[in-house]
Amino acid sequence: MSAAAEDVVTEAPAVEAVPKRAMTLGTTTSLVILVILLVLPFLVKNFWIFQMTRVLYLGLAVMALNILTGGSGQFSLGQSAFFAIGAYTTAVLMEHANMNYALTIPLAGMVAFAAGYLFGKPALRLSGIYLALATFALAVAMPQLLKLHFLEGLTGGVQGLTVMKPDAPFGIPISADMWVYYFTLAITIAIYIGAINLLRSRSGRAFMAIRDNEIAASAMGVDVAFYKTLAFGVSAGITGIAGALEVIAVNFAAPDSYTINQAISLFLGMVVGGVGWLPGSFVGAAFIIFVPNIAESINKGLSGAVFGVLLFIVIFLVPHGARQVAIIAEQLMGKLRK
After folding, report:
1. Model-level pTM?
2. 41 vs 51: CA distance, rounded Å
3. How many domains does the chain have?
């Protein structure tokens, strides 16, 4: 072993598990939020139930990007491509194979995982801005690939595919929108818990070691190539499930729904929510859903400019996103208790 490698091994501290509060909320806060999410649909109209469903599945997509970027330090502007893969997997299976919507969810995740893993293999040679550009190219190409003539019979071409919104099973007396919301909520909670456990596991510590110092991680015996590719696959798989949930919620999949604009929105949601803080993913999702509507209500003709100003104000005031707000709130609560 060279002297430089010996220095790395000697000086680099062991990678510790991320503290619980760095990744998620406390138990009491989590339970309160869960109760609110369970009760709220009975207090609001179907429009707001649908919007809450959007926050959940887009929050999953933002969280997937957070695992990739905040967890392993890899930047991606191509998440919309994996979102589209998951969405079309569900749409095709429901439309052409008459498969039950619930059964398409794991299949959409597996197909997207495979696509992400395969893309991650050649992308191992890239890092930083070059990796971002490669994923950017993937996001730009995906809508055009879905419109290819020889795939029209499967994907519906430019027109896309329309599926039926599922009704509540077993005669449960709730609306279809409410059922889809609870279905999405159950999957979101399961994946959220799984993501937390992943980042606390040996694989998660390997991700974070690579993020902090790739050379030091390799010197400590971490298989950098494997874990970087795995992070891409896991992120793509969760994003694919989010895409599948969107198809079930909106009953439609079309190529122009999965453009580079969506990929940039997901990246923006991660930044606003706080890079590396999983609960912030859902705050970021709410931001990219509701703030553009607020900007349009302020000035319809200059909604883009108003949105830009609002975004600048948020980033200027809280550069670390919702995570910074949570830390300040926790400090204030601690002072009040004293």
Report:
1. 0.86
2. 11
3. 1
